[in-house]
Amino acid sequence: MAHPTIRVLIVDDHFITRKGIQGLLHQVDGIEVVGEAENGREGIDMAKSLEPDVILMDLAMPEMGGVEAIGEILAQRPETAVVVLSGSNLEGEVLVAVRAGALGYLTKTASQDEVTEVIRQVHRGEPALPKEIHRKLLGHTLPHSRSIVAESLTEREHQVLSLVAHGLENPVISQRLKVSEATVRTHLRNILSKLGLTNRVELVLYALGQGWESLDQCLKELTVRDSDRPFNSAN
């Protein structure tokens, strides 16, 4: 069964950068550039009309910068994966963008293989950040210890966290847990509040910082316990 084509929007004020990335992706099977925007405001409008799966977003642009645009786009289309495009490796810039909801990072000198892999990775719901930036982000956004997590989250919240960390979207989590999407959203709000996080991206980074072993175990337990549990929106 063929996988659906990943629809990509490029938002960058430099014409040569946009055309260079478009040229790289034109040669890649399963990825299609559906549009180009030269500033954040235009990017918001095109994201709404074109409904891309992934947006490659510059941060420094006229009229509206990338961080503000990321916030507005994800408020309208939270399922969109945003990758920061930058000509510099500034940790502060990336941290602000991740707090706004960006899931990945690419330098403008990245190779075709690097660009392709990051697009596919964020499309799966996985963060795509360089190790040094990832470590810095973990230090900023994940100050909680493993014991605090274990004490503050309920069993169901642990299950939701594990499914989010493995890249599942709310409708799939709803089906997996046999609860309503509204219930999933409520659990997510509670988890974010308890952990002092602001968005889904930080939640995934938090899960990574806690280690995959415990999350994988939670998924195994979930499969055994909930395989025959009836639907109940109050769970």
Descriptive overview:
- The protein is an alpha/beta fold and 235 residues long.
- It folds into two domains: 6-130, Response regulator (Rossmann fold, 3-Layer(aba) Sandwich); 142-226, Winged helix-like DNA-binding domain superfamily/Winged helix DNA-binding domain (Arc Repressor Mutant, subunit A, Orthogonal Bundle).
- The chain has twelve helices and five strands.
- The chain has a five-stranded parallel β-sheet, sandwiched between helices.
- Helix 3 (66-76) links the parallel strand 3 and strand 4.
- Helix 8 (155-165) crosses helix 12 (212-226).
- The longest helix has 15 residues, at 181-195.
- It starts with 5 loop residues before the first strand and ends in a 9-residue tail after the last helix.
- 37% of the residues are buried.
Number of strands: 5
Major sheet details: 5 strands, parallel
Give the overall shape, derived from the CA principal axes.
globular
The CATH architecture designation of the largest domain is 3-Layer(aba) Sandwich
CATH class of the largest domain: Alpha Beta
Helix content: 55-70%
Uncertain stretches of 5 or more adjacent residues = 142-147, 224-235
CATH topology of the largest domain: Rossmann fold
